[in-house]
Amino acid sequence: MKKIISASLLSAGVIAILPAQASAFNDVSMYEKEIQYLSEAGVIKGFEDGQFKPASSLNRLQAIQMILREMDVTDFSAADPDFTDVNAGDYGYEEIAKAVDLGIISGKTDIDGNSYFDPYGPLTRGQMAKILSEAYELDQEWRYFFNDVSHEHWAKDYIDRIASDVITTGYEDQTFRPENDIERQHFALFMARMLNDDFITGTELQNISFMMDQDKEYVFEEILEDETITYTLSFAGHTHVKDNDWEVWAQKFEGGDHKDLLYVEADNRLYSGWLGSEYFPRLDYPIYDGKEWSYTYGSESTHQILDTDATITTRAGTFEHVVVQEDLVSNQIQYYAPNVGLIKSEFGEERDDLNISTELVEVREASDVIADNPVQTELNPTEFETIEEIDGKAVIGELKDPGVVPAPSIDTVEVTIIVEEYFGDYESMNDTGLLFIKNNEPRKGVWIGLKHPEENLEALTTYLQKKVDAGEIPFDSVHIYYTPFTQDDLRERTRLVSDEVQKIASQHEGAGSIVSTDYNNGEIIVEHNFLNEVDQKKLQSSFPQYSIRFERIGTQIPDDDSQRIVWPDSLVTNDLTLNGHYIIKVEEDSFLTAQAGAIAGEHFDAVNWSFTGASEHLEIGQRVKVEDSGFVFTSYPEQATAVIVNILPTYLPQSADKTEAQVVRELIQKESFSDFAIKTISDIAFNEPADEWTITVVNSMDDAVVEMVIAD
């Protein structure tokens, strides 16, 4: 944790918390010690009437005045910041100019591109995070999760920086509220915590994120009885599902097969699952020792936290502050490391008959597919060759056989560090080009793409040749090639298009999308289930500089809401076919279905569907087939968004007065079908001589079969 005590406080001898004294202000009741601490140090002054006005909003000028006082700045000479709303001679001009000169603030920009400062505008909590991070050069040690701070929020990194120093722990509901105006008492509290650890009451582990690092690649080994499976997880983009922005991670198996996994922290939970399939809640926040929680439909606990500060070693290394959790249903023990996620899972002693486990075996810098761009330079341990160049661009030529590359277990982090050292740091490398490390044919080796090779080619090749000859790069081939894109270029264009896609997605219930970039040609790929032709043309016209390819996934969401319910040509049928699902519960904007024709003792599907206006259009007892958005949260019942509801014809025997739907509705009104043990119809038959219906009911918890009779 980085703490900076400025010269002004040190010279005044103000380091520890001062003994309790009469408050300098007559209206302070909360954070008295912190406010007194800053008052004694001359950081805060209050108002002429002796008040501090603790609950009032702090304006932007007041914030920088407090920071500059704490820094003991006396020389206010600085260049004019050229803000349109602050001129020389104005109150606060010198402080604003000095704050810009010191890099603490940068101001705002209006729609015409003019810079302004807005000195009397309120400072938001997000802006507070930025100016404190910049003023005191705070480091980000951890990444955090707040329900209202997405990974794309402009202040995300700054909030992580002040949370790493425990300057903030957010609110009890795990929100940070970055757009709220910051109160004067809270700004004083944050400054006091930053300057003196004695004011800190929380820990840096509060609100810690258990999501993986997008700049890393994770290698897992999974044992399934006699079979061992190795796969890697690497970040592949984002997709918008159920009002949340999910991270997409490519799960790549040995042999070339791959799947797309989704991860998100939302609604106080960590979720993961497969794209277009099922999703599970993995952790429930806040995390504390002994906590029990449930992801099933009911109140019975399914998980328990056994430890929150374990030290666990896997082949990938030693991890601290690990959360140990037991799945009470399966007896599986799971280990989650902060900023990494799952590092290990195994079955407890009660299931020692199962040889099933998962282990994180390696963490390395992210790599990706090599673009088919012209190769400019090839290095190897015995030979250096520059391929002929024409007009500053390399000619595409045959690559030499790259030879045998060490197995994927080679620590590629070392290679990344070597390349980073040349550029200065990881961010500068991403701003210059691309770095990939390939462990598979046909292009094994280290690949470095440069957007402006004329600036770095000669010096970089000389630097790398020395590293290769010294044996510091454990690959037989290192290639430097021309790329028209840098890593930052590709990330930025993906973000810009993704933002616009999500604006359209917010207008459609059940909308889902994935936006990614083809590293070969820079083409943007938008996979979706809601964009019509007009939407696609608007998106393309908004980004004429990019090529955008649209691919549909799942069921296309209808433009007209009336098309979301499809009725059959004939509402009744004389033939009974127990397909589809029965609607067993209907609420205003949701309905619950259970699989028709289920067999006792076997698992049957049950899904809680989000569907706007469900109570106006659907009825208990109807049999339906539902087309979903392709994104399903696994619990029991599962959670999903219905895109189209197909009403199936209801069974009506020739001599019966009631339909199948009416009989099922009458039964459900007498007997609840949606308790913890969800029930459904296994069979239904009409007894004409007795003029009655016999319904066979099964439930999700046991093998019990119950027959019920409803008079016709």
Structural class: alpha+beta
Q: Give the low-pLDDT segments.
A: 1-21, 368-411
Q: Provide a count of the helices.
A: 14
Helicity range: 10-25%
How does the overall form come out from the CA principal axes? Answer: globular
Oligomer: single chain
The major beta sheet can be summarized as: 5 strands, mixed, barrel
Beta-strand residue fraction: 25-35%
Distance between the termini: 74 Å
Work out the number of β strands: 35
Mean pLDDT: 81
> Major sheet: order of its strands?
27-28-29-31-30
Radius of gyration, whole Å: 31 Å
Please tell me the total number of domains. Answer: 5
Protein name: S-layer homology domain-containing protein
Organism: Jeotgalibacillus salarius
Domain SLH: 18-77, 79-146, 147-205
Signal peptide: 1-22
Short description:
The protein is α+β, with helices and mostly antiparallel strands and 712 residues long. The protein contains 14 helices and 35 strands. Helix 8 packs across helix 9.
What does this structure look like?
This protein is an alpha+beta fold and 712 residues long. It has five domains: 7-199, no CATH class; 216-365, Beta Barrel (YmcC-like fold); 375-484, no CATH class; 488-552, Histidine-containing Protein, Chain: A (2-Layer Sandwich), CATH 3.30.1340; 563-711, no CATH class. It contains 14 helices and 35 strands. The radius of gyration is 31 Å and the shape is globular. The relative contact order is 0.07. Residues 1-21 and 368-411 have low confidence and may be disordered. InterPro entries: Cell_Envelope_Struct_Comp, SLH_dom. This is S-layer homology domain-containing protein. Residues 1-22 form the signal peptide. Residues 18-77, 79-146, 147-205 form the SLH domain.
